[in-house]
Write a structure and sequence with these properties.
SRPBCC family protein, Polyketide_cyclase/dehydratase, about 160 residues, 3 helices, START-like_dom_sf, Alpha-D-Glucose-1,6-Bisphosphate, Chain A, domain 4, alpha+beta, seven-stranded antiparallel beta sheet, single chain
Length: about 160
């Protein structure tokens, strides 16, 4: 059984990279596109640290599906945002979430990767549902929403 995992998804957004970056680097904007907000519309959300970029922090606590955890932006450039993700529930784990934004004219190639070490709980759970199947569909849904939000923002200016 693997000791680590990496799930990667990508898309082309018909909007400049700065529009996509603004949605990724500010956790308050994630409500517009994050697939996990659907898991519990009533979950408690706390924002702290910087408003956006390095040091921005987001914590949540929700129902069984949403769990509890926090994220912090650890590095942010115009073309990359790195996030430390820690779950407390349903089982403790840590991951790195990376968004690579590559400008291609007026479009942006977005590559979203979630990676980390497999904890014992994750290894057991992955026997039923591998990480690729667990995260992949949600990441695809998130990219569809991110694309729609960034393209809508690009049309308004």
């Amino acid at each position: 059984m693997a000791s680590s995992y990496a799930v990667r998804r990508e898309t082309i957004v018909l909007a400049p990279a700065d529009r996509v970056h603004a949605l990724v680097v500010d956790f308050r904007s994630w409500r517009r596109w994050s697939p996990w907000d659907d898991l519990d519309p009533d979950m408690d959300r706390t924002y702290s640290g910087a408003d956006a970029g390095v040091g921005a922090r987001y914590a949540w606590s929700g129902n069984r599906k949403a769990g509890r955890g926090h994220m912090e932006i650890t590095d942010a450039t115009a073309q990359r945002v790195d996030i430390a993700l820690a779950f407390e529930k349903p089982f403790p784990s840590t991951s790195t979430v990376t968004s690579d934004l590559t400008p291609e004219g007026d479009e942006t190639h977005v590559e979203w990767t979630t990676s980390g070490d497999m904890t014992l709980g994750m290894k057991v759970f992955s026997l039923v549902k591998p990480m690729e199947e667990l995260l992949g569909p949600d990441m695809e849904k998130g990219l569809v929403r991110l694309k729609a939000a960034a393209e809508a923002d690009a049309r308004t200016t």
